[in-house]
Write a structure and sequence with these properties.
This protein is of the alpha+beta class. It is built from 5 helices and 4 strands. It is elongated, with a radius of gyration of 20 Å.
């Protein structure tokens, strides 16, 4: 499926506010509500639109620390880690990467004690490097056709 200019306009609207109705999107881009619905359905079917999520303030839900944690797996410990990483509820995002480390994780934690406990759970898998996030400069930046 080709993502044409009209589909990009729909994607732009949804990336800024996924709760917009088809009628509201249609008014913004000059299409009827049924035409918007049809295009959205096609983009969902093709996997271009993967889902709709609520954005949660982690700080206001009791998680005072957000960190990026890199893991350099010990010999023979990467596969066991990959099998268990989904059990770590602190992990928001986890990426397998190239370079010196094997894994990069974005995590939320209650406090420094929670961070220490989390690191202790990771140590059996490899060498851990932790970077505490001080602030977000860009977050959930929408993609566009002009990259």
């Amino acid at each position: 499926m080709k993502v044409d200019a009209t589909n990009w306009e729909i994607l732009h609207c949804l990336q800024h506010n996924a709760r917009l109705s088809n009628a509201e999107i249609g008014r913004k881009i000059g299409l009827s509500s049924p035409a918007v619905a049809e295009r959205i359905k096609k983009m969902e079917d093709y996997g271009i639109l993967k889902g709709y999520r609520a954005e949660v303030s982690y700080g206001k839900t009791g998680y005072q620390l957000k960190a990026i944690i890199a893991l350099k797996a010990f010999m023979g410990r990467l596969k066991p880690f990959l099998l268990h990483v989904s059990e770590f509820k602190e992990v928001l995002n986890c990426y397998r990467i190239t370079g010196n480390e094997n894994i990069i994780m974005e995590v939320v934690l209650r406090d420094q004690i929670h961070l220490q406990e989390f690191i202790d759970r990771l140590i059996p898998y490899g060498e851990v490097k932790t970077h505490i996030i001080l602030s977000n400069l860009i977050e959930n930046n929408p993609i566009s056709p002009n990259i």
